[in-house]
Write a structure and sequence with these properties.
The chain is 42% helix and 19% strand. By secondary structure, the protein is α/β, with parallel strands linked by helices. The chain has 2 domains: 9-137, Rossmann fold, CATH 3.40.50.2300; 146-396, Alpha-Beta Barrel (TIM Barrel), CATH 3.20.20.450. The two termini are 20 Å apart. Residues 1-5 and 401-409 have low confidence and may be disordered. Residues 10-132 form the Response regulatory domain. Keywords: Phosphoprotein. This is Diguanylate phosphodiesterase.
Amino acid sequence: MISMELKPKRFLILDDQLVLRKLISRQASFFSRFAVEIDEFSDPAEALRSLVEGGYDLVITDIGMPGMNGIDFIKNVAQLGYQSALLIISGYDGKTLQTIADMSSALGMSCTRFLTKPYSAEAFVATLDDIFNEMERLLPLDPLDIEQLLSMIGEDDYRLEFAPVLTLAERKLSGFHLAGLIQNGKRYPMDYLLSRLAGRRMASAVMLETVVERIAKLLVDIARHTSFAECPISVQIDEACLRAENVFDHCYMVLQQYGVAARRIGFELTDGLGRHADAVCFENIAKVRYLGFRLLAGEFGQGALAVSNLFKFPFDQLNVPVETLRWMRVLLGEDAGAFRLLRYFGLSQAAVCATRIDNEESLALARSLGCVSGMGQFLGAAIPEGELVAATRSIWGSSSAADGAVSVT
């Protein structure tokens, strides 16, 4: 059902063929998440004149058009200052469209997706859903300066929030991922917090050590009150964390104090490390492994982690956003599954986790490509730390229960 309380989303559709324009407009009418207002154009110049007036939430364009082609149109759109969402629909091959999408992102488009003709109405609607999920993730947060953030951490004036990780076949809880911090009802994702602290020496390390201690206490309670005694939790880290000497030694000592095994903590790295990175960064990656923690590669295909890092670093798990899975299937065909990735990077079968699973289509995609686990709004909403033990017990049962194969919805 369309919520009329929301402001309608404005779509601009550009295609030189009338039948295709009408088909796209028809398919857009199936998008029930928002009311939609559509402006159709066959002439790129007219579309650009309309864009000058502003107000569009999504631009949908073909590539192969007479006169001004889609690539030049996108470049002109960027020059006009448009930075919202772009959907490219074309008969060109997936690799070409991915390259054009990368060009669009480099020009400042905040969210770029593509569909290769022919495609289904279901795929079109799922892509729209994916676009607006991404746009919501990119909404600007209330500014939080470093001093305010450090004060919040030092005074324990926050709550943690965790995303549940589920097996995709049975929808069984297999762990949690630290989604971010909550203060006064406002949510701050971990990637935002890390980016704010990156410029202050040792600030990221202080936050990491403080957060790990909070997690250690939670893991003790989960082991004590539920049958999921080996519940793992992962935490995102960045290069600033890796530049801090002894940060993982300190995390290890904290876990020792609480009697928590290091294997129950995973550190997810999304930053790439080049040849000129500090030596202590590589030392810390080695420490993560020999201290017994798990090392996860995050945002595969979307973040800054280089392919060379994936080959060289001893990762235990690969976290792959659904959007990466989508373009992998387009670029590599039906053999683009998780098992192909595993062969490349020397990982075990259970080591590919799909992320950002926000609808049924993305869940089906992750399953079809062999991903064993996943997380996202469709699988389960984030859980505040005060409710984590109860949520785990409701799924796995108390410590005397024998089985925890209960679905999370």
